[in-house]
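The data are set out underneath:

___
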Amino acid sequence: PTLNALAGLEAATGRTTEARDLLQRSLAADPSSVPVRVALATVQSRLGANDEALKTLEADAKVADPAGGL
């Protein structure tokens, strides 16, 4: 939670690269965190890394439904 809060502050002050780094660390600590994945994808998109953002969201779908079904 602390990394997420710091990432939010970094993003709010325009320090998106730092926010991305913090969110990546947070996600490594808790790979099943959907809110962190969404926040990371948002920051990646702001940095112009749209392919990476899409991969992050696709991984989110796999975590949410590992069987791949509806």
